Structures are given as C-alpha cells and as structure tokens.
Amino acid sequence: MTSVAGVRWGLVFWQHDGRAYAGITGPETRTGTAPVPEGATFTGIEFAVGTSLRAVPTLALVDGGIGLPDTTRRTFRLDGARWETPSFDDAEALVESLVRAGIVVRDLLLGEVLRGHRPAVSGRTVERRFRAATGLTQGTVRQIERARTAAQLLAAGDPAADVVAKLDYFDEPHLARALRSHVGRTVRQLREGSGGAIALDLDQRLTS
Known about the structure:
By secondary structure, the chain is α+β, with helices and mostly antiparallel strands.
C-alpha cells in the first residue's frame, strides 16, 4: 500500500497469524510503501495535531515509529501501564483514559495557533513549541495538508488548474511535484483511481 505523508502521530493495533502487535506511528514527511500482510486485521487511532505522548517525543517518531512490547490480544503496555487493546467501538474511550492519565497531552498554545489566533508570545517561541509537539515545522504541516487536500480534490474530478488556483500553488508543475513527494500519485493516477491501494480516503468530496 502507498503510505501518504501525514502530520499526525497515532496508535496502531494488528493481528496476524495468531499473534497480536501494537505500535506508535509517527508523522510522515514523504510518501513510501507500507506492508499489509495478507490476513492481517488492523485498528488505528490518529491523534490531533498539537497532542503528544508524555513519554515519547514526537520528533523521535517522525518518518518512523516504535513497537510496543508485551502486547497480547487483550492488552498492550504504554508508558509503564497496561491498557485494554481497543476495537473500533471503544477507541475513543481509550483516548479519554490516556488523556485523564496524563499520557496524552495537548499544548494549548498550539490549539490557539491552529484556530488562527495570534498568541502573545514571539514567533520563535510558537515555532519551537509547534516543533516540540508535532515533530514538524508549521511550513511542513501546511505543505503536507495542502497536498493531501489537492489529491482528494483531483480524485473527485476537479481540474488541475482549478486545484492550483484554489490551493495557491504556483503552477501545475509545482502541484505535480508536491503530489509526487507527499502522495505518491500523479494527477492522472488520481483522476483514474489507478496506482493501487493508498492510505488516503479519496472517495469523499471536499468543499471549501
């Protein structure tokens, strides 16, 4: 499966050949290929930009991740405690428990920045806090999110010229480079739905 650049970290749980696994996934700054073993089942949780793990710096997770030890079908270990492995139906309950325990934390300053507010601190402080929480710069986050949005618009049928204008790309070659780097697809592949499996929902039409 084509792995698409993304700005969020997450938790992933999977079972394969009778064994259970768990891991922490990090933000990805470029496209790649992710293995999907035949017969494996996955449950994943993506966390909002601005949240982070108390015990693992997000910067250490960028373009990578770590496996969690001592995982069973029923439980996994994180930050020195054992937790029940979630299903789709109780993933939100796990997140709430991790927040209450202080294992998942949020930088409130970043919440203000992401809502478009201008906090009463220097730009350098904002950038330092942003990078500490997300592992990425604000510019990198904008580039990745813009490329993902462009891919969804193109897959929905928007002409490339319209996407360039809507998302403020310099020109179509600039758009093509961004797609190649962050999505791993060409404009034509996105229009035709070709290129194989991809870790991006291209079925939902976006609105401005």
